[in-house]
Amino acid sequence: MLERAADLMESRYVSIEVGRSLAQQLRHDAAADRWQALSDPGEFAAALTEHLREGSDDGHLAVSYSAAALPAVEITAGDAYSEQEAERYYGRRVNHGFEKFELLPDNIGYLSLRVFAPPAMAGDVAAAAMTLLAQADAMIIDLRRNGGGHSDMVALLAAYLFDRSEPLSSTYYRPEDRLTTSNTPAWVPGRRYGATKPVYVLISPKTFSAAEHFAYDLQALGRAVVVGEPSGGGAHPFEYRRLHPHFVLCLAESRSVNPITNGNWQGVGVVPDIAVPADRALDAALELIRAQAPYTGTG
């Protein structure tokens, strides 16, 4: 199994140098029987995950154990969840990630988003939330407890904050040496908030992956002021690779590339424009909005 993991790291991990280094370490570990003392499969997976992350500074890298046998065919990250798992992570009981959306005093829109659900599950909820928030004079989008999700929802929600299609981060796929570009959709259901009214995005160290994608791209486009603490630093989308009938590797095979900065947030996180403790970010954003001379809330 370790040899299979080493082969995958060497041939598919997004950073050639890091992948080669981790592959060498895995082969050395296998020869030295480093993991032999770990008889519990869950503990083994957790220890191997920690080892890979230490060597890569990549929070997307992970090894998972499944008591049930895994399918022999490869599955993509988007298809990895069972219907029950997708419902638990993205479904109606969590309101598809839309924890709260409301108009606060002074006509300030507030959206607390816990996950970026796939538009096929949550597009109608997104349209309802953004149509309400379109009436606001300023908007706060709270991603402080958002660990990621689907990039298609990133693009959809971002589209409501513009008047036309705008470029988002591209994705570079290392195995195919291929770059795929991305833009916000030109049409959205419901009402747009538009491109001129202020937007504040709240982040914390728990903000990760797709949530960082959203914050970083809006910041790069000059569309949002980011408030809080630096985010988790995960800009390497992953795929699932089967190592064994009961073990799977979450392998980062691609990286985000922003067309404006030519970079991303991997390892460093999204750096806030206004640095405050995460638990103070909402109050700070409200103070900033109310202090703006051109801003006139309706009370």
TrEMBL record:
SMART domains: TSPc (SM00245)
Listed Gene3D superfamilies: 2-enoyl-CoA Hydratase, Chain A, domain 1, 3.30.750.44
Superkingdom per UniProt: Bacteria
Species name: Lentzea atacamensis
PANTHER family per the UniProt record, alphabetical: INTERPHOTORECEPTOR RETINOID-BINDING PROTEIN (PTHR11261), RETINOL-BINDING PROTEIN 3 (PTHR11261:SF3)
GO molecular function, one term: serine-type peptidase activity
Chain ranges of the Tail specific protease domain: 84-277
BP-aspect Gene Ontology terms: proteolysis
Designated name of the protein: Peptidase S41-like protein
InterPro entries, A to Z: ClpP/crotonase-like_dom_sf, Tail-specific_protease
